[in-house]
Amino acid sequence: MGDREISKAVIKRLPRYYRYLGEILNNGVERISSGELSGKMQVTASQIRQDLNNFGGFGQQGYGYNVKFLYDEIGKILGVNRDHPMIIVGGGNFGHTLAKYDFKKSGFVTKAIFDVRPEMIGEYVGGIPVYMMSELESYLKKETVEIAVLTVPKNKVKEVADRLVKYGIKAFWNFAHLDLDVPDDVVVENVHLIDSLMQLSYRISDYEKKAE
User: How many CB atoms lie within 10 A of CB 87?
Assistant: First the structure.
């Protein structure tokens, strides 16, 4: 693979490959062709081969793909073959919902939630301890954290992100309605839920137009 830039479209499809291969593996399937995988994923066989060739191919002509091997290799590419300790900053309803989700099975271990509400002191959400925002810096000094999940209001997200960067956080999963501007050595995945709904709305409108 070298230093070749991988397109965002390919990166976006990798978790889908990983998820589908996991399901196939659980069903006891040992090998699969690009054509069979295409039928399950609704991606052309040619596109699958092109995507995987970015990372070395992994298939054998006349045999297809070893499901376990391909699953493990994509897991390594995605970095989910190891644990990623993370914290949730912003303990409102959405933050608490995320805390209850089982990310651990994919390697993402939520260690703490940070909130501003005094009544949350000493509480646990989904088995995860809640701390006050005033304890953020002291926590980061003694604990290893790789990812910060941001569910704070839009007008607070830059201030919070700056605090976190200062204490060594290099990755953000950002649910605030503001794209973060961070140093080059910090990575951000901005998640805009309304964008996804707008894409759904477009598809509804497009389908209705074609049906006329």
Answer: 23
Q: How far apart are CA 24 and CA 30, in angstroms?
A: 8
User: Running DSSP on this structure, what letter comes out for residue 5?
Assistant: P
Query: pLDDT by residue (tens digit) across 134-162?
Result: 999 999 999 999 999 999 999 999 999 99
pTM, full prediction: 0.85
What is the rounded CA–CA span in Å between residue 153 and residue 162?
15
Return the sign of the alpha-carbon dihedral for residues 198, 203, 204, 206: positive
State the pLDDT at residue 4.
64
Task: Give the list of residues 6+ apart from residue 110 with CB closer than 8 angstroms, or none.
Answer: 86, 87, 88, 98, 99, 103, 104, 126, 128, 149
Contact 70, 22 (CB under 8 A): no
Token pair in block for residue 72: 């493990």
- The two beta strands, 65-66 and 31-32, are antiparallel
**Cα 56 to Cα 108: distance, rounded to the nearest angstrom:** 26
Task: Give the HSE-up count for residue 82: Cα atoms under 13 Å, Cβ half-sphere.
Answer: 6
* Residue 177 forms part of a structural domain: yes
pLDDT band at 6 (very low <50, low <70, confident <90, very high): confident
Share of the chain above pLDDT 70, in %: 96
Asked if 100 and 37 sit in the same domain, the reply is no
Q: Are residues 68 and 107 in the same domain?
A: no
